[in-house]
Structure prediction request, 814 residues.
Amino acid sequence: MSEPIRIGLLGRGTVGAAFADLVEQRADAVEEATGRRPEIGGVLTRSDGHAEQIIESSDLVVELMGGTDPARDYVLEALRGGKPVVTANKQLLAQHGDELFDVARDAGVQLRFEAAVAGVIPVIRVIQESFGAAEIEKVFGIVNGTTNFILSEMAASGAAYDDVLTRAQELGYAEADPTEDVNGADAAAKMAILARLAFHTPVSLEEVDYDGIETVQPDDLAYAKELGLSLKLLGVAERRDSGISVRVFPCFLYRGHPLAPIEGPFNAVMVEAPAITEVTMSGPGAGGVETASAVLGDVVSIIAGDAPVHRVGERLEIVRDVPSAFYLHLEVADRPGVLADVAGVLGRNEVSVKSVNQRGLGNDARLVMVMHECLESHFRAAVEEISTLDFLRSPPRSIRVIEEEFV
Amino acid sequence: MSEPIRIGLLGRGTVGAAFADLVEQRADAVEEATGRRPEIGGVLTRSDGHAEQIIESSDLVVELMGGTDPARDYVLEALRGGKPVVTANKQLLAQHGDELFDVARDAGVQLRFEAAVAGVIPVIRVIQESFGAAEIEKVFGIVNGTTNFILSEMAASGAAYDDVLTRAQELGYAEADPTEDVNGADAAAKMAILARLAFHTPVSLEEVDYDGIETVQPDDLAYAKELGLSLKLLGVAERRDSGISVRVFPCFLYRGHPLAPIEGPFNAVMVEAPAITEVTMSGPGAGGVETASAVLGDVVSIIAGDAPVHRVGERLEIVRDVPSAFYLHLEVADRPGVLADVAGVLGRNEVSVKSVNQRGLGNDARLVMVMHECLESHFRAAVEEISTLDFLRSPPRSIRVIEEEFV
Prediction:
């Protein structure tokens, strides 16, 4: 058995605590995947622990303190000491990226930071690795969940900015001091990081122009709805002439734009390049467990080194008869009792009807039905029985229906 | 200077030729990123080249022949000889995955296959690496672009399946023999691969139940539209009790489902796990260049080994004054000549108006305008001038508008 990987954890707030839990829960899976078991070594909290000692005695350092001081010193110390670092600290990267990346490059040590941008969406890995050889033209999207929640709520309810902000704070989607989110500064830091990676050029935070959403009025959103537009706070980094433009601003999107349907505290990022056309990725913007999961993904990549050939566990049984909802279309004779007969067959087979529409007359009469979720074998048995009924003018047609509603 | 990486290319059809071109175009960028320059060594075509010789003399083998025979033999030979392999061959992986992965694992050699599933969407990397330590509950989505194009067209035009299929063939979105696409077999092979990776269990192609779209009728789509549903061919792999279910079937989605807006020859995949909630990724389903780009991403990862610290090129200029379209909201006095004055200011500043709505009367009068794209400095100058006009009741409000329409 090989030695465990000792993780030095700097910071034990919401994300830090969630990360420590996740490491414990997933240690077996990580060991199976990589051959080495992760374990939390030292933990630095506000009141306890000695940073230098923790770094010194770890194989890998996870920085979840936030802020740039003393996080910057600790990360530099770890990198210089040859310890790979995973961080979720966007301000640290946006403000001190040049220095940190130079030191990591010189030391030949990995510095990973998937959790710093766009929550659980793996945009850093995709830009750096999947599209590492593509000439990226544009990276843009919704990279702040707080503002997307506020704009979605304002559009849906017609309420004013201040009222919706208060609601967002109550629900935990906005901080007590929401300034950095609502004025665009948080999104600007994330766009500085994305621009740096996409275009292989230093980008400092001061070079990113940003506007926030504080001045958006309910009637802007009302007019937008009439025009078929939806309002998003967008971060955009793109090639322009021989340079690049990196900005954050509220923006109307026409219906049909891939980012238009992104509602609530979600993030979404699009990457455009000639050889890939475009790729859109979306998911929850933040949350302690989601951020911790992105951190753990980076930790696993560092432990694994080369991409492993995926592990195979025990063979799982293939389940074929699963519950589904169904649409059922029946061309029937136009006479009394037809619906009763059909409903009778369905009921006997434990299939419950959600809605029925009778359409057409005479030779065009038909039943269009939607079922509640039921075991597929029950539905198939019912359809087989229905297809023997003498009033059917053609074989029954059925299609599954998915009802889950997302944010 | 380090030695170049010699790539043995097996197959030179559409994707193979696009890959060879892309390697040439991006060789500099790959060398900068990884320290080693890729070059195509031997090429095996139908009429030319000797496979064993090409494999023997290469550092890395790219298999783009399609089919399982002789692709299987060549890939096994390469892996056993310690050469990493990149392939886009979904049938090969779905039918002979167990054997290939076992050999790769024993030889300690990478076998990568991002291009085999979901076109340019990096779903393989994301499942294996970003979510490598997550307990995935469900992977599902639209993994066949041909059928999604056909269903989108049927829904939009009301045309019959056969007519739309003919149109898809003319546009190059469907093969001359579309059987494997329209009957669901192609999607089934992709779902077998995704299920294997997501759940760490062997999944054979015969275990995937699939239905196609050949029997979908125009009136199914017409009723669906009335009900607010859209029809997709879905592949679903999910945990069920202590086993898994892997299926492909046409399915109605309610409005608001993240996959409902995916139209045309696009693919989209969702991954669900407790620690990540859900992530959705979408992009073009196929195309020679897009597939070649996914192959190159895998090649770069193999050359790079450990994830590199991203390279930095020369500093790109930050461009701040870029063209945008704008919405402009003016609360104005309700009197003649107001629109003419505003239009005059805009015109003098080279800002062209796309639409104007006059709303309200008296103290509620306002102009809601949308501009065509113009240089931001021009628009700002116009707004500054407008804000000095005496009939304005409050400061002008402006918001950018994005008009690009996607598929």
Summary: The first helix of chain B runs from residue 14 to 34. Residues 94 and 205 of chain B are 6 Å apart (CA to CA). Chain B has 13 helices and 16 strands. The first strand of chain B starts at residue 5 and ends at 10.
